[in-house]
Amino acid sequence: MCQRQQDAGAPRPLGSLASSHIPKTSIMVIGDTEIDFTVAGDGQMVQMDSTKSGFVGSQVELRCIFSNSNPPVKISQVTWQKLLNGTKQNVAIANPALGVSVLSPFKERVSFKQAAVRHRTPSLEDTTIVFSNLQLSDEAAYICEYTTFPAGNRENMVNLTVFARPLTRMTLTTPTIVARPQKRKMTVATCLSANGKPQSVIKWDTRLKGEATFQETRNANGTVTVRSNYVVVPSRETHKQKLTCIVTYRNERITDSVVLNVQYEPEVKIEGFDGNWYLNRQNVQLTCRADANPPVTIYQWKL
Fold first, then answer.
1. Which of its termini does the chain have fewer beta carbons within 10 Å around, N or C?
2. This protein's superkingdom (predicted)?
3. Which strands, in side-by-side order, build the sheet including 87-95?
């Protein structure tokens, strides 16, 4: 376990706090977890995680615990606020006399974790809140402020990051791929990773001699859609070749594959003539073979 300290006036992510009541901020590291807390001169502190994250639609807890060492103080109110682009918005309030209040638009999705907070005579030392059905718009800094008597206000902050898992699919651009005599390039498959946050990375794995194009679209809600097309010149050599799309999202790897079905004209060969045919030679045979897709069904011999 290690502990490091920083000045209370140092910049904080996603906004700054009014910390005139907070002499210093400490961060305690236990394993891979950082616990951030503010320490007052008389020993009170607000303990919070420095960062939290979750996926859209999931549940996440924002921890806030008040450590009240000697001399004891009276907690008059606890206020949770959302801090985004320098603007504060009240989320939830716990008051010993007035009870618990969760404000719109958080009312249906935010609650205090501890039942003791909701009692008629509440216990406000642990005012951890729970977000359910997390949304992209929830990404912000959140302040937990304790109003105490006679020590004044104590507060701290957690930065919440919201991830969005993308929708990924691979499709053939046309059900029928036809090899043309002009040998023109065409897009045969598209790999799409839509509405992800952070954005995905698309790669292709194939023996085909083609090329990939990439396009990124940044959506208004902060997600990114990545599209990649694979372009080849259809031919008999590309028929039955496997094409695999690899999408990497954070630490996840998603793959999808198709086998190309290319239609091409017959390539005809006559086999059996060895260059040494002579009069009255027996057991000779000519065979007509045709390589085509779809396969040849009718053969005709003409002299």
1. C
2. Eukaryota
3. 51-55, 152-163, 140-149, 74-84, 87-95, 99-102
Q: Residue 287's CB: how many other CB atoms inside 10 A? A: 9
Q: Write out pLDDT tens, residues 46-73.
A: 999 999 999 999 999 999 999 876 677 8
Cβ-based neighbours of 96, under 8 Å, separated by 6 or more: 75, 76, 77, 121, 122, 124
The ranges of the chain with pLDDT < 70 are: 1-44, 69-70, 120-121
- Residue 120's pLDDT is 64
Say whether both 10 and 37 belong to one domain. Answer: yes
Nearest-angstrom CA–CA distance, 219 and 217: 6
- Domain co-membership, 43 together with 154: yes
Torsion of CA 240, 241, 247, 252, to 10 degrees: 80
Are 10 and 136 in a shared domain? yes
Beta carbons of 188 and 212 less than 8 angstroms apart: no
Residue-level pLDDT at 1? 35
- Residue 143, classified by CB atoms within 10 Å of its CB into exposed (0-12), middle (13-18) or buried (19+), is buried
Domain that holds residue 250: 167-263
pTM for the structure as a whole: 0.74
- The total number of residues shown for the chain amounts to 303
